[in-house]
Each structure stands twice: as structure tokens, then as C-alpha cells.
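Human: I wish I could look at a protein chain and see how it folds. This is the protein in question:
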Amino acid sequence: MPPMPSTRPLSTRAVPPRERLIAALDVPSPEAARHLVRALGDAVCFYKLGLELLVGEGCFALVDELVDEGKKVFLDLKLHDIPETVARSVRRVRTSGATFATVHYGERLLEAACREAAGEIGILAVTLLTSIDRTDLRDLGYPSAIGPEDLVVGRARRAQELGCAGVVASSLEAPRIRAAAGEKLAIVTPGIRPAETADDQRRVATPRDAFEAGADYIVVGRPIRDAADPRASALAIQDAIAELFS
């Protein structure tokens, strides 16, 4: 994948540089998550809790612990149900102390989620999973003229109108989202890899690519979790972020 142009403006949102890295706790149990959090120490202050962890026992006790320790939490719930069920789910988590929660794109779903969030938790619209490419869109029945970027940008613009705090989108779409939505909409970019890798993520980027494209936050999972030294891996990314935003 070619690098994004280095002339792109960086995010101007008032986010401390160390909070721009969100480490994904993509592990099977709260105890495994605690082990990783302890290993990372002060190298990470923002964590994403994904579906594997959220469906297990004791997940929200872990959320309480992280918040009590001064960590920020992103609940990657990817809610996708009828609007009433989504609204009731958001009502349950809005006082958890988490900063963000995700809802799959759907105008009525996002409208219900934002209404129930009541300003206590930021709703992030999942525009399109980063594992999906143009071939997958054809399989889903979209016309061949529509690509991931077109779909994501249109959805991001509408998500902002509905009151979302931000969107989850790859760095490939970030420049057009930023141009369409300005600085009010946070862009959270997953699929971050320090170098090219072969896995199930198709629309990926390096940390520098993502921020130069306009991302406000990056979500990093496997490159930290599976590293021989997770703390060193996280610190290397934090150093790169500090250099970009110094």
C-alpha cells in the first residue's frame, strides 16, 4: 500500500498525544486483559475492549477497574439490532465511565444511540469494517461503481448530522471524511500495522500513515499484544506519535 501524502494536515483536536494510541485488549478473559495492562504500565492510557472480551464474565468489573485507575476506555460493542434494543443497550453503558462505544451504521440505530447517550458517552459509527474491500461489497449486493471509500464518506457525513461523536474508518477514507466533516467528528482508525503484514485486515496503515491522513486516534491490537515485549512496542508507537505532534 503506498504511503499517504506527508503534506496532509494532522489532527488539530485537543487530544493529549499519549491518548491518541488506543491499545486493543483483544484477549479472551478479564484476567488476560489485566495481565496485558500490567505489562504495558504507563505506556498506554487508553484501551479498547472488543467483542471477545465483552461477551465474557466480569468484563464490566474490568471497565470499572480501568476507569478507577485513570485509564480511558473504548467499548467496541458494535451494536446492531432494532433501534429500541440499541437505545436500551446504550442506556446501560452510558454511565460506565467509558469514553466511546461503537454502533454499526444505520440511521435509525445511530439516532437512537445518540439520543440515549445523553452526552455521557461518545457514540462512534462503524462505517465499514476494515476487513471489507470492494470484492466484499460486490458480494453484499452493492453496485460495482461504489467502493469502500465512497460508502464510508457518505456514512460519516450522515453520522455527524445524527449527533455521533466520531466514526471508525480506515486511513484510506480519513482525508475525505475530514474534508467533508471538518474537525468536529473524531476519526478513530483501526487496522494499524507498524509494517506490511499478511492477515485478515485489508484496509490497513502504519501509525504515521493514519495520522497524516487525518486520524485523531489509532487502535493497535496484534502488534502490541503479540509482541515479544508489548511495552516496548507501545512505547515505540508513542514515541512516533510524540514526534508527529510535537
